[in-house]
Amino acid sequence: MKVSLSNSTTAYSPQAFYTYGTYKEDGTPNFGLFCWLSFCLDGERCVIACIGGEKLTKDRIRANGCFSANLVTEELLPLANYFGNKSGYEPDKMQVDAAISKGRVLDVPILEKSPWIFELEVKQSIPLDGSEIFICKIRNILVEEQFAEKAREDKGPMPINELKPVVGWGGGTFFKVGEQISPDAQR
Ligand SMILES: Cc1cc2nc3c(=O)[nH]c(=O)nc-3n(C[C@H](O)[C@H](O)[C@H](O)COP(=O)(O)O)c2cc1C
User: Fold this and answer.
1) Biggest CA pair distance of the chain
2) Is the pTM of this model over 0.90?
3) Which helix (H) or strand (E) holds 116?
4) Domain harbouring 52, CATH code
5) Is 57 in the pocket of ligand 1 (CB under 6 A)?
């Protein structure tokens, strides 16, 4: 038997997590944690990112027109969770021990330890009531070599579980991804 839930909480939206990296006005990096990321087609595959409220990441995406989206893994979770719970408006936010370098195509900071990174250029932004949607051109996908080889060969499925991404409802609870399953075996 099913029961209905109201849409009064933003917490119950199943998804993966990404840290978005932007450069601040002084050229130093900032990262926030985000989960409202999806894909669309606009001539090519694009990323849709939704950012609610006012936050430094949003200010910097508006100012720079680009950012990185770094897939959060089990190893990166403590750092990512910190990025999601401390405002970039606090000047000491980025005084953390994190390996940060630059994107290969865009001037965006990236987290070295993320195995799957999108370098994104904003094509269009749509202001909504309480949030803003950024539709982004994927200018580069920076991937750990072992996964890039699989993607290039296009042989069999990409083993998502080997990337060890974290998934969850968006509300601060996190889960591991399990093993590949066959749709037929579930009948
Ligand atoms: C698990 C988790 C998921 C989050 N997802 C989003 C999101 O999808 N959109 C959003 O606007 N904020 C999201 N946040 C909140 C931002 O990460 C948070 O406001 C952060 O302080 C922003 O950093 P900044 O000020 O450096 O940009 C999330 C936070 C957590 C802990």
Assistant:
1) 56
2) yes
3) strand 116-127
4) 2.30.110.10
5) yes
